[in-house]
Amino acid sequence: MNTTHDNPPLPTLPQLGKATGFAALAAAAILTVAVLPAEYGIDPTGVGALLGLKKAQGAGASAAPAAPDVLPTASGKGAEPVEKTDLQLRNDAMSITLQPGEGAEIKASIKQGQHFVFSWDADGPVKADMHGEPYNAKPNEFTTYWKVAQQSGGKGAFTAPFDGIHGWFWRNKGDKPVTIHVKVSGFQEKLYRPS
Fold it and tell me: Where are the beta strands (DSSP E) in the chain?
């Protein structure tokens, strides 16, 4: 007895390419519209805020005034692709060495709506916390942006949600000294170690 099976034909390479392309576009759209606003508080399109996906402030954080999602322009329309500034573009770098159990901060003083791009790397894993507080903040008046238990580096772009000091705290939980190198490029007023 002969039986035949009617199996559908396998997709061709062009069909696979199209399907992969559509999947990549869908993933990029989901990342931009949902994941970045919900997980990282980054909302480049403004759709995350409209959908109520804006990341809540970190635990113990105060209710600091938030930057508007869309900045008004002279025409009264939404934000333009270019934001002009009279501030000087700065390229700052600092390094710190943490002994076992030691913690330290590096902060940037920056005004609301201004931006910087940052990268930091450590020669060993450290606890890292990126946060900010308004000028003359009360104790425990801060907003946490990014927190990890063990990491050897980080990079990204930051827009200040309020006038203040924004930056990083690291703690060396290992048993050997760890050196951390930080680079910041943007419109910060200064990069420094708070006393």
Answer: 90-98, 103-110, 115-134, 143-159, 164-171, 178-186, 190-192
